[in-house]
Amino acid sequence: MAANGKPLLSVEHLSMRFGGLVAVDDVSFAANDKEITAIIGPNGAGKTTVFNCLTGFYKPTVGRLALESRHGGFLLERMEGFRIAQVARVARTFQNIRLFAGMSVLENLIVAQHNRLMRASGYSVAGIFGLPVYARAERKAVELARYWLDRFGLTAQANIEAGGLPYGSQRRLEIARAMCTEPVLLCLDEPAAGLNARESAELNEMLLAIRADHGIGILLIEHDMSVVMGISDTIVVLDYGRKIAAGTPDVVRRDPNVIRAYLGEEEGQDLPAIVAADLTAHP
Question: Are 46 and 27 in contact (CB under 8 A)?
Fold first, then answer.
């Protein structure tokens, strides 16, 4: 929970319509500080649309998106996307990796701190003249970048081009880059997509360590049930744009509405079997 006893993020009656298509229909849920909240559901359930509303890519048709953190209170639906990232400190990764492939691994993490460096430079003046205030900010940016390279096991690759990393390493770099913005809420869109079982297990450990060591909230969309069930404190389940269940992993995996949504059956199979057999569809 946030310091004032309220959830870190409160989503209230969120709806998103595209003409006659209702992508998200009256969805409400809360995500607590220092907890991992997962949003799951079959393909087309509206999960990424929720993320796009939270991070400013879409303006909700209806709804209140309230973030309460140590930096203040924010109504995200009223903010431009760049202010959601800079001021409210909501960071995001994407299902499709969006690194600067031609830049080095280290440069990708320094670029993530561009806004902080620009403020320190007086929007180029201090940087051009090499004033101490900018030099200090630049050293701090490099130190933070190297800290996250170390945490994600990427130090040895610091000077190679990001596009040359193996796929799993690129996934880790994208999360490291998001953490360089020092977020209060980290939104991860399918972070385990394309990872093998070992890499997914390592991802679980990294996300749990981030939550424990940095005290932030994590909101994730994920199809890999070994990740979702292994690390989530709360799971929100969507189907056809509506919330059909929410609760702890133990509660959600036995919810008949969830079983029907995934399997098209009444109660013929419990969600633990989905975890074991990996029956959830992947886009």
Answer: yes
> Above 60 in pLDDT, residue 147?
yes
**Cα–Cα dist 36/148, whole Å:** 20
**Sign of the Cα pseudo-torsion (88, 91, 94, 98, in order):** positive
The per-type count for the chain, helices as H runs and strands as E runs, is 12, 10
- Long-range (24+ apart) CB contacts under 8 A made by 119-127 are none
Is a pLDDT exceeding 60 seen at residue 280? no
Indicate if the pLDDT at residue 255 is higher than 80. Answer: yes
Which structure tokens are listed for 251?
A: 């509660």
How many CB atoms are closer than 10 A to CB 21? 8
Angstrom distance (rounded) from CA 25 to CA 39: 15
Tell me what pLDDT residue 88 has: 96
What percentage of the chain carries pLDDT values higher than 90? 73
